[in-house]
Write a structure and sequence with these properties.
Blueprint: H1 2-17, H2 24-35, H3 44-48, H4 51-60, H5 62-71, H6 76-107, H7 110-129, H8 145-155, H9 165-175, H10 180-205, H11 212-240, H12 246-264
Helix pairs in contact: 1-2, 1-11, 2-7, 4-10, 4-11, 6-8, 6-10, 7-12, 8-9, 9-10
């Protein structure tokens, strides 16, 4: 029962942080180091429960996605949107597949997370503090394939735990001419193939490591993260309508410093 409670807590952490620009994987790595759940597939667990966030995006945008599916054969704007999503997902997907073992073995630790949080937080603050630049894309279906590729390239940096997939893709979109709301919404849509593909591939490559209890932990973590992620999506969309991401940048820097202190104190 204690282990299930730990898994539920980890699912809550994943759900809250997946779509905020603060790194869900980074927070999970630190949370796992603190809670020490008895999971035999650490690394895979942090990746797998992200499937809950994918389901949350699909559920939140279901009416739009269903309408797009019905008109995709005839609507060129829908075709371009999903072609752009596929193009944006490819750079990180290919890099993650090629570097999977290296990333897990060398980068899945609190120190890397802390440094990434701090650097990413500073970048986020600097970008938000720069003079406002003209945005030429204010609608999801107006995103060009070039802009989608720029977002995809930016997203590859998020393979480093602590960088944040949502932060990298949103910043990449804003630098490419998308307004903050459109960049955020595109980041949500991009989570579907990016996180969904990463989850399936990592699980298939880790099947030989699964223990009987692991499946229960994976399902519970994914369900909890999905419910919480759905609520987080609603909150973030309202937030970006009238706020920038400076507060998230400040949080990242503070969180990174705290993690480094805990590492130095051998708590992590």
């Amino acid at each position: 029962m204690i282990e299930i409670i730990k898994v539920i807590l980890l699912g809550i952490v994943e759900g809250i942080t997946e779509f905020l620009p603060i790194s869900s994987t980074g927070h999970l790595i630190v949370a796992v180091a603190l809670l020490k759940p008895e999971i035999s597939i650490e690394g895979t667990f942090e990746i797998f429960i992200q499937i809950g966030a994918v389901v949350a995006v699909i559920a939140y945008y279901w009416s739009d996605i269903w309408q797009q599916a019905r008109t995709v054969r005839t609507d060129q704007t829908v075709q371009r949107l999903w072609l752009g999503i596929i193009i944006a997902a490819m750079p990180a997907g290919l890099a993650a597949f090629a570097l999977r073992s290296l990333i897990k073995e060398a980068l899945f630790n609190p120190t890397v997370v802390a440094i990434s949080l701090i650097i990413g937080g500073i970048v986020l603050i600097l970008i938000e503090r720069r003079p406002l630049r003209e945005t030429n894309t204010t609608a999801l279906k107006a995103i060009s394939l070039r802009q989608a590729l720029l977002v995809g390239i930016a997203q590859t940096v998020a393979l480093i735990p602590g960088v944040s997939r949502s932060a990298a893709s949103i910043i990449g979109g804003m630098m490419g001419g998308l307004d903050r709301q459109t960049a955020t919404q595109f980041s949500f849509y991009l989570a579907i193939p990016t996180l969904g593909g990463a989850t399936i591939i990592d699980l298939l490559l880790s099947l030989d490591e699964l223990q009987p209890n692991d499946l229960v932990y994976l399902v519970v973590g994914a369900v909890v993260s999905g419910i919480v992620a759905w609520l987080a999506i609603r909150w973030l969309l309202r937030y970006v309508a009238s706020h920038n991401f400076v507060q998230f940048g400040i949080y990242r820097v503070i969180a990174g410093i705290v993690i480094l202190i805990l590492v130095a104190a051998t708590v992590l």
